[in-house]
Amino acid sequence: MTTATAQIGGAGGAVRYGSMARANKRALRWSYFFLTLFVIFFLMPPIYMFITSLKTSAEIGAVTNPWWVYNPTLENYTTLLTQKSFLTFFKNSAIVSVLVVSVTMVVSVLAAFSLARMRFWGSATLATGVFLTYLVPETLLFIPLFKIFATFHDYTGIALINHWWVLIVLYPTLTVPFCTWIMIGYFSSIPKELDEAALIDGASYFQILTKVFIPVALPGIIAAMIFCFTVSWAQFLYPLAFTTSEDQLVLPVGIVTTLIKGDVYNWGQIMTGALLGAAPPLIIYAFLMDYYIAGLTAGATKG
Amino acid sequence: MAQVALRKIVKMFEKTPAVQGIDLDIADREFIVLVGPSGCGKSTTLRMIAGLEEASSGEIYIGDQLVNDVPPKDRDIAMVFQNYALYPHMTVFENMSFGLRLRKFPKPEIKERVDSAARILDITDLLQRQPKQLSGGQRQRVAMGRAIVRNPKVFLFDEPLSNLDAKLRVQMRTEIKKVHQKVTTTTVYVTHDQIEAMTLADRVVVMNHGRIEQIGTPHEVYHNPTTHFVAGFIGSPAMNFLPCQLTENGNGLSVRVSDKLTFPVPQERLARYRPHAGRELLFGLRPEDIIERRGEPEPGRAAFEVQLEVVEPMGMETMVYFVVDGVEVCGRVNPNAARNAGEIMPLVADLNHMHLIDPRTDLVL
What we know:
heterodimer; A: MetI-like fold; two-stranded antiparallel ribbon; 14 helices; 73% helix; 1% strand; flat; disordered N terminus; disordered C terminus; B: alpha+beta; Rossmann fold; 2 domains; 6-stranded antiparallel sheet; elongated
């Protein structure tokens, strides 16, 4: 963009054309500057992980340039991917995450629909309560949860601790409140006339939800699903506290507990494991982001 | 096809009354327009007929059935909303057929009904489009189409033209009238626009403060308003109101609106107004009954002269404004006869169309 500054003849105030474009350009340059800083800051760790994952333990320990691989090897990848325990972690993580997403979506979509649309006694208080629940951090929750599990064991004799499937019960305590909150916001933004029209057209409340609300609020639902998947995939504290046997571990905990043997840190494999573990959310983001953004703009129709 | 009846309908929101005891009988195939200022309870009344609001008391009948406890979907009604309320994720065809599909109509019949409604509304080419690809007027047609395909007993319109620009509004108004002539279904139409009410309605229901002020044909509510409110609300520009004194004048009566201006009451009104002689009343006359003077005034017309304050040429007529005792009065004169602002203009008032209002009861005498 080369903007010529046209000088219009005449005494006094000459109009400088193109000054707005110049201001625009300067703003753009600054935003590029900060975006670049941002990208460097956030891409450095994964790049370092990737570089390290291609090194042998010897090279990692050697005093060389840490940002360069002198003898690249895929050994770390082959070791991990052929290791039974690593595949178990992966499988556990996948099952837990998918089930948590499903459970959360069913619960929070239903909850949000009723809180957003059906005015019943205490619905407003309940909606606020849902959000307040989200504000309590898991670091505070896991001890009382432990206590609840112990009491449950005392009464029923069923041990909930040290099973991967117990995480399907635990994670929703984090995901449901937040997803419900997002969905309440989305559902509330749908014009009231839309459900009234559906009501007159002969839809039941459940049909209004499935045939009108869910399709219309799909961008919101996908946003909630992405959030939910990320939380359950990356959750560290709960699985660390509630599961111990190697075959019950999920990926984040599994990597840390099996690849750090005493004070021996197998950095190459740790980095590889972490990188492989980060892949599924990345792929999901990459696919759904387009759809998500497309949905956001399409949802901007009136009525 | 069905008649609709409201019996002593009351709607309270918390402690505030929105509708205060409405009685209304709507005949089969009739086009009824509920009109009134915002907050007069017209939309609430419509929503109670639809079943979207529950009546606090009173009875609603559609056909012969008491429908107070019948959910909207079983009332066999269709409603057109102000903001169209089209399902944004469905095509026009899907929007129009949604109700039929929910009711499990056979596919060929759905197609037939949608096609025929689309033909009536001239939207056959749009059936595969999404609502966001349509203009405001097209969306309005689709919303009407969605109502027509259901072939309901009653059509309900909730200010359907308010979101359209002025020109389109006039077009769609005609369109709605045409559609009603083709699909003669009982219709209840809510609007705050008195011109819409006048042009569309078989009968107009003028509402104010949750009550019905007057029910009548457009001609009746315009020429024979029964209350101060109706007289002032229907008609644009609005009727002129002047405080006056009704005085006995030998055998006749006269209306004294100011020290300088006194109008004689026409012969045929004498009997009607005589019991009120001597009282302070409100004199009402529409702008079109105040016109330029041409020769000698005919019987029932009174000549007078005023100094014009403002002159508004409208093209086919010119509005002249002048002040009588501090009250602005509007007259409607031939553009060729109009004088300029500040000048004196001779006018005549057609007292055959005068109204006298009792300020204590607000009723037209």
